[in-house]
Each structure stands twice: as C-alpha cells, then as structure tokens.
Amino acid sequence: MSRFVRSVGTRLSLALLLVVAAALGIVYLAVVPSLRSHLEDTRLAQLAAATTHLAPEATKATNFCCQDDFVETSAHDVGARVMIFQTTPIPGGLSIGSPIADSSVAGPAHAEPTNDPIATKALESGSVEQGFVTDGGVHYAEAAVPYGRGAFVLLLRDSLESQLGSVHLVQRRVLLAAGAALVIALLLGYGGAWMFARRIRRLERAADRIAGGDFDVPVRDSGGDELGDLAVAFERMRVRLAQLDDARREFVANASHELRTPLFSLAGFLELLDDESLDEATRLEFLDSMREQVARLTKLASDLLDLTRLDAGRLRVEREPVDLGALSEELAEEFAPTAAASGHELAVRPAGTAVGLGDELRTLQIGRILVENALRHTPPGTAVRLKVFTHGGCAVLEVEDESGGIPRERQEQLFERFFRLEGTRASGSGLGLAIARQLAQLMDGSVTVESVPGRTVFALQLPLAAQAERRPEPAGILD
Ligand SMILES: Nc1ncnc2c1ncn2[C@@H]1O[C@H](COP(=O)(O)OP(=O)(O)OP(=O)(O)O)[C@@H](O)[C@H]1O
Ligand SMILES: [Mg+2]
C-alpha cells in the first residue's frame, strides 16, 4: 500500500467522505420517492373528488351538444382532460369503447383512449375508481365514475408530468447539493487531517530526536486535545531523560575525578620509590601512603559498584529481623580502635534494643557509614554516641556526634552523590550517605539528619520486625 493511502490524512478524509455520502444518500432516499408518491397521490385524490362532484352535473347534460359543453367547462374547472364514454352492450356485459365527448383537441398527443382500464373498472364496480395508467409512454392519474344507470362513464385524466417535473427539480437540487457537500467535505476533511497528520509527524520527529540523544529541543504542541496531551507527556519524558543524562554525565565526571586523585598519588609515590638514595624510613612512609591510596581506591570502586547496582535495581536485600541493639554493640567494638586513634569517645548509650526488618549485612554497612562519618568529620576529643530505640512503628539506630552543626539548607544535600561540605575535615568521596539512604529505602526504611550547633544526629529507621509479623494488626512497640 502506498504511503498516500496509508496516511492518516487520506484515511480520515475518505472516512469523512463516506459519512457525508451515506448521510446524503439517506436524505435522498427519504425525500425524493416520498415526495413523488405524495404529489401523485394528492393529484389522484383531487381527480377522484372532482369526479364525485361532476357526476350529478354530467347526468343533467346527457344530450350530445350539452355533453361537449360540459366536458369543456369541467376540464377548465378541474384542470384535467374530461371524457364521457357511452357504454354498449356486448355478449356477457358492457363495453365502453372510445369517448363520445372529450375536452381535449384531437391529435397524436391526445389520442383517444379505448377501453380505458380505470373507466372499465368504474363501470364494473358501479362506483368511483382511481388509478395510474401509462399511455403512449406518458404517466396519467385517472378517476372515473359511471352515471345514467351505467349508460355513461365520466373519466378525468391528468398527466403527471408537472408533478414529476417538480420531483425532478428537487432531485436535481439534492444531487447538486450532495456534489457540493462532498467536495467541501473532501477539502475540509483532507485539510483537517493534513494538519492533524502534520502534528503527528512533528511528534514523530521529536521522538526520533530524543531517541538519538538530543534532549535540547522542547516538544511543543498547541492543541488541547489528545495529541496535545501526548506532546505534554513527551515533553515530560524529554525533561526527565535530560535530567538523567545530566546526572549520568556528572556521575561519570565525578567518578573519574575521584579515581584519578588516588591514581595520580600512587603514580607519584612510584616515581619517588624509584629513587635509590631513599632512606628506609621514608620508603616505609611512602609505602604506608600508597596502602592508604589503594584502600581508598578499593572503597571507591566498591561504592561505585554498589551505586551502579542500586541504580540498575540489581541489588537484592533480605527481609529478616535485624537486632539493632546487637548491631550497635558490634559497631562500637569494630570502630573502637579508630575512635581511640582519633581521640573520640565512642559508646552505645543508653543500651537499648529494637528489632527491625531488613538485611543484616546492608544494615551493618549503613551503620558503618554513619559511625565512620561521625568519627571522621568531627573534631578529636568529642563524643560519638549510638542509640537504639523504637519510635512511630520503626526500629531506630541513631548516631549522635558533637560536630559544629550542618546548616539546614545543606542537610538534604548531604545525601547527594559526591557532595561534601566545604571545609570538611577528612577527605572522602561524598558517596557514603547517598549509598546509606538508597540502601535504607530499598529496605523500606530511611536515613535522616538533624543538626544544631554542637549536636548532629544521623538516624536509620527500619520497619519493626514485630509489626511485619502481626500485619495487618496495628503496629506494636518492641522495647
Ligand atoms: N557526622 C557528620 N558531621 C558533620 N558532617 C558530616 C557528618 N557526616 C557527613 N558529613 C558531611 O557530609 C558529607 C558527605 O558525607 P558522605 O559520607 O556522603 O561522604 P564522605 O564521608 O565525604 O565520603 P565517603 O564516600 O568516603 O563516605 C561529608 O563530606 C561531610 O562534609
Ligand atoms: Mg562518609
């Protein structure tokens, strides 16, 4: 099928054309035949009425000279040809033969009817009869009535040409109007459909652009119809994809930058180690620094892997009861050497218990991120406290420190990837909190921050394990 036939424009205009043609056809069939039969029936009824009316007068004018006058005058009055037949007896009945008086002038167009069927019928029935006859290719309406005790038959005949003329006129006008309506419908339909198709093509081009990675040109459509709604949806998709593309670029740029720093540092140390005059103490110091950079690279690589898995939805988490009390003790034990090294006082205070529902290893990972931050980003000698309790149907693990306070407008930004506060004490990649929040969300929990000068609290909330077991009953608090 050619593109022209398959196009929406052609199909829509053809559909419109068909609808208009069908509507006009119905109008034609409803109007023309009924108009024709109405006009013919009306004329026939008029002739029948006139016949009834003229019969008594015809009875009075039975002699021949009077009959001629009578038919002339009557024809003039009723506007039809008037004929009188005299019946003649034949074996088995009566015959009417040719008219003895006729209002019409002689000639081929006015041939005298012989044995007219309507007149014969009237003679047989003895009452007024009416009907249509065709004589010499012309249609007539006729009405007849016998009178003079069956000796005569009065016949009125009128050609239906004038009625048919009116019908033909209406017929011509309807056909003309139909032709004009079809042309207009075709033009309007094709014009409208062409504009509609043009909007579809514009959307198609926009979709191609977006598929090709070009998110710069906005998708616009001024129509308020379904196509307009589609364009709005396309525009939403474009904006979202542009944001995702920006985020992806930013992520790649940040990740490359973060990877480059320790790599540069390692390359520098390798150069320095090449120096043969290096004393043993400096060499060991360099090796220590290199180990630190390798550890940083390893952590960065595993953080990036976690984020990639989280983004792709490929990171699976268990749903198991996690005792946050035991977990906080484990964290305190694990970080005790680090806290001692940085001069922090690390303690679980007050000791509490709350069993959340989540993945134990991932919960431990989040706890590590929060405790590590509290130890790295606060001044030495300050206290870091771990608290476990239940609140609002959640099991909560809080890590509280005595840092200077994080400005309110920055607090949500901490959870963005690669974000670090200006003047941060220790160098990190800015990924820890982003991973912590995404992991918590994956377990239907959350990580929040509250900070005032001298006190910053990061809290992990997980759904209560007891609540999940007793569902759908109201949540209970487990202490
Ligand atoms: N307890 C805290 N007190 C003060 N500032 C904090 C605290 N925790 C985090 N921050 C600030 O939030 C920033 C983001 O923390 P996040 O853990 O995401 O990254 P990071 O610690 O810098 O690097 P890493 O990816 O190694 O964890 C930190 O750089 C720091 O500026
Ligand atoms: Mg961190």
Can you give me a brief rundown of this structure?
With 479 residues, this protein is of the alpha+beta class. The chain has helices at 3-6, 8-60, 64-78, 117-125, 161-211, 226-273, 280-312, 324-342, 360-376, 408-411, 432-442, 465-470, and strands at residues 81-86, 88-90, 93-95, 99-102, 129-135, 138-147, 152-159, 320-323, 345-348, 355-358, 383-391, 394-401, 446-452, 455-463. The longest helix has 53 residues, at 8-60.
Topology overview:
Layout: H1 3-6, H2 8-60, H3 64-78, E1 81-86, E2 88-90, E3 93-95, E4 99-102, H4 117-125, E5 129-135, E6 138-147, E7 152-159, H5 161-211, H6 226-273, H7 280-312, E8 320-323, H8 324-342, E9 345-348, E10 355-358, H9 360-376, E11 383-391, E12 394-401, H10 408-411, H11 432-442, E13 446-452, E14 455-463, H12 465-470
Parallel strand pairs: 9-11
Antiparallel strand pairs: 1-4, 1-7, 2-3, 5-6, 6-7, 8-10, 11-12, 12-14, 13-14
The protein binds adenosine-5'-triphosphate and magnesium ion.
Adenosine-5'-triphosphate is lined by residues 303, 369, 373-374, 377-378, 401, 403, 406, 414, 419-421, 424, 428-434, 456.
